[in-house]
Write a structure and sequence with these properties.
Blueprint: E1 4-7, H1 11-23, E2 27-33, H2 40-44, E3 47-52, H3 63-73, E4 77-79, H4 89-98, E5 101-102, H5 107-113, H6 116-125, E6 133-134, H7 141-151, E7 155-163, E8 166-171, H8 174-192, E9 197-201, E10 207-215, E11 221-233, E12 236-242, H9 249-265, E13 270-278, E14 284-290, H10 297-304, H11 308-316, E15 333-340, E16 342-343, E17 349-350, E18 353-354, E19 357-359, E20 370-371, E21 374-375, E22 385-390, E23 397-398, E24 405-413, H12 416-429, E25 431-433, H13 439-446, H14 449-453, H15 460-464, H16 476-498, E26 514-519, E27 522-531, E28 534-539, E29 544-549, E30 557-562, E31 565-574, E32 577-582, E33 585-592, H17 594-600, E34 614-616, E35 621-626, E36 633-634, E37 639-645, E38 648-653, E39 658-663, E40 670-671, E41 676-680
Parallel strand pairs: 1-2, 1-4, 2-3, 4-5
Antiparallel strand pairs: 6-9, 7-8, 7-9, 10-11, 10-13, 11-12, 12-15, 13-14, 15-24, 16-17, 18-23, 19-25, 20-21, 22-24, 26-27, 26-33, 27-28, 28-29, 29-30, 30-31, 31-32, 32-33, 34-41, 35-37, 35-40, 36-39, 37-38, 39-41
Helix pairs in contact: 4-5, 7-8, 12-13
Length: 681
């Protein structure tokens, strides 16, 4: 076994690999750029080596710099994580030439399966059903348009060396094919150093289901069930679960056996994933093979008890698999939510900055939880497990140079329903401040009827949130629970304020018991009576809720029990009440006396400034190009400019017809959120 492993990556996956290496007694080496000198993976590793400036194409994906770090540290093996150099055959060859083990598949498998065009040809030759498309390389936008018409719209324009949703566009017409080709080519070159593009038919209403395979160099191969990855945004997965609520055992077995056969056809040895699209009749089509560890691997670990990182390391060291297909048992249900630094209220655009508060929910029995259906660790019987894979910390920064992932929050339970409920509570308990993040959206998905039913497709987000995410309107029963809780909390705060010393003589402050709670357009007149065990909140209609909690003023998380049912609220102080966040809703809750409530109804509403004649920068980013000039008339949907952020190019389009009156920015300018790019007459 190896004594020292270098992790050629950063962020949460580097931290994840370090945890398993430490468990195995293997020393670790981190590499870092200027932007990551204070990163969590650097502090966790036993050693660290600086490799260059912040941009990945000047540090993390420069093979020579990584090789220098390997020589400097004396590492015997390299784990590439995902992204960066994880599927780069040149890197694997360089390691082989240096006599350093690559914790991944052989070079031949990377070359044949890591390249989407070649892998499709091999799949076809192996008799695997594949999606129709053009397998050759495409030289320019004109050829892309021609091929798109031959394949038939809609088409998927994809980077051959792509992954993680980068270098991918869906085109529904010639104009989108032309634009998509160039943007995909640019993203592919920037992210992977390989700008080759191919086109395939976009199958509408598909499910994205993938099979985890594990092979050794002795001819053994197994599959560890599937992962449902259909909830995606911009072709990037957001929510994953294992197993899929859609598959039956026969389809699972057929997909698994086909995935293993494909892996064996290229002498695969390591962990890998074979991705399929599956239609409503359970027909499945080979999509691609990822010759690396997947982002969403934790859900497979949670239902199988197999530590995939450990298995990768053991296979790289020449060991045989210690488990057979008969040993693989899928136990319970696991769900993963990807927490991203992106603002769901601004079209999920990237958000950067400092994490002024980062408090994930408490982990329960973290790490591989089950071995053949038996608990490993301290998880109480009958309760859900919580796991949080992260690479950040409170006070750290989310950089503009890398993927905006903050954490991967996972829950496990014996049933899907219990795993979803555990995830709801975990999301409510996750405290993140300082940047925009998608926690509200993730909470909304967990409560969405389509997700709960398990009948989602890859079009879920597009169909259910066509105008973007605008928050959640909670049902009245939930609002009543929140109103009762806030009334009880307000009473506690009022009692503390009444006990403040140094008061003027003859000015004693009394705490009343009648309040009007306003929340999300609703008003609830309540009366609060308390005892040592909690408070009873009575509504005008005669109903009452019992609220118990140890919340004290200043706490930013309130864990309450409302009529013997748990309720977790994120709490902020505002004038006359609280800012409450729960289940995807962001609420201003005011608790007032009857007279204060009466006066508040008379207050005029403050309207936001009119920005309808301005194009505002929706995210911190770099202007790549401006497509219009002063005096030009633009049409609805016309491209106005391109902004690059988090390695993604974003084309900003006109929302309506207009004439450009002023252009305030140009190519190369770095802009902040809401900076005015273009003004219209």
């Amino acid at each position: 076994m190896f004594n020292k492993i270098l992790i050629a990556n950063r962020g949460e996956i580097a931290c994840r690999v370090i945890k398993t290496a430490r468990k195995m007694g293997i020393g670790t080496v981190a590499i870092y750029s200027d932007a990551d000198k204070n990163a969590l993976h650097v502090s966790m590793a036993d050693e660290s080596v600086h490799i260059g400036p912040p941009p990945a194409n000047q540090s993390y994906i420069v093979i020579d710099k990584v090789m220098d770090a390997i020589r400097q540290s004396g590492a015997q093996a390299v784990h590439p994580g995902y992204g960066f150099l994880s599927e780069n055959a040149k890197f694997a060859k360089a390691l082989e030439a240096e006599g350093v083990a690559f914790v991944g598949p052989p070079v031949g498998a990377i070359e044949s399966m890591g390249d989407k065009i070649t892998s499709k040809k091999i799949a076809q030759e192996a008799g695997v059903s594949t999606v129709p498309g053009y397998m050759g390389l495409i030289e320019d936008a004109d050829e892309a348009v021609k091929i798109s018409n031959e394949v038939g719209y809609p088409v998927m324009i994809k980077a051959s060396a792509g992954g993680g949703g980068k270098g991918m566009r869906i085109a529904w017409n010639d104009e989108e094919a032309r634009e998509g080709f160039q943007s995909s080519k640019n993203e592919a070159a920037n992210s992977f150093g390989d700008d080759r593009i191919f086109i395939e038919k976009f199958v509408t209403q598909p499910r994205h289901i993938e099979i985890q395979v594990l092979c050794d160099s002795h001819g053994n191969g197994i599959y560890l069930g599937e992962r449902e990855c259909s909830i995606q945004r911009r072709n990037q997965k957001v929510v994953e679960e294992a197993p899929s609520p859609f598959l039956d055992e026969a389809t699972r077995k057929a997909m698994g056996e086909q995935a293993v056969a494909l892996a064996k056809a290229v002498d695969y040895a390591s962990a890998g994933t074979v991705e399929f699209i599956v239609d409503g009749e359970k027909n499945f089509y080979f999509l691609e093979m990822n010759t690396r560890l997947q982002v969403e691997h934790p859900v497979t670990e949670l239902i199988t008890g197999v530590d995939l990182v450990e298995q990768m390391i053991r296979v790289a060291a020449g060991e045989k698999l210690s488990i057979t297909q008969d040993d693989v048992t899928l136990t319970g249900w696991a769900i993963e939510n990807r927490l991203y630094a992106e603002d769901p209220y601004r079209g999920f655009l990237p958000s950067i900055g400092r994490l002024t508060r980062y408090r994930p929910p408490q982990e329960i029995a973290s790490g591989p939880l089950l071995v053949n259906g038996k608990w490993q660790g301290e998880a109480p019987e009958g309760e859900a497990a919580v796991r949080n894979d992260t690479g950040v910390y409170e006070g750290g920064e989310i950089s503009m140079y890398y993927d905006p992932m903050i954490a991967k929050l996972c829950t496990w339970a014996s049933t899907r329903e219990a795993a979803i409920e555990a995830m709801r509570v975990a999301l409510d308990s996750f405290e993140v401040e300082g940047i925009g993040h998608n926690l509200p959206f993730l909470s909304a998905v967990m409560d969405h009827p389509i997700f709960i039913s398990g009948n989602m497709t890859t079009a879920f987000i597009e169909e259910q949130y066509p105008d973007g995410f605008e928050g959640v309107t909670l049902p009245e029963d939930d609002l009543r629970r929140i109103a009762a809780s806030c009334a009880a909390m307000h009473r506690v705060a009022e009692i503390r304020r009444a006990r403040v010393s140094g008061r003027m003589d003859n000015h004693e402050r009394k705490v009343g018991d009648r309040w009007v709670v306003s929340v999300q357009g609703n008003e609830f007149a309540v009366r609060v009576s308390a005892d040592k065990d909690g408070a009873t909140v009575r509504f005008e209609d005669g109903t009452a809720l019992r609220v118990a909690s140890d919340w004290t003023p200043g706490d930013q998380l309130a864990v309450l029990d409302v009529d013997d049912s748990p309720l977790v609220l994120k709490v902020g102080k505002i004038s006359g009440g609280f800012r409450i966040r729960n289940r995807g809703a962001d609420l201003k809750v005011h608790v007032r006396t009857a007279r204060q409530a009466e006066l508040a109804r008379m207050m005029p509403e403050k309207l936001p400034p009119d920005t309808s004649k301005m194009l505002l920068c929706p995210m911190p980013g770099l202007i790549v190009k401006i497509d219009v000039e002063v005096g030009q008339e633009v049409q609805e949907g016309q491209a106005l400019c391109t902004v690059e952020a988090m390695k993604m190019e974003n084309i900003l389009r006109a929302e309506k017809k207009g004439v450009v009156s002023k252009v305030n920015a140009g190519p190369g300018d770095n802009l902040a959120v809401d900076d005015v790019i273009i003004e219209f007459e």
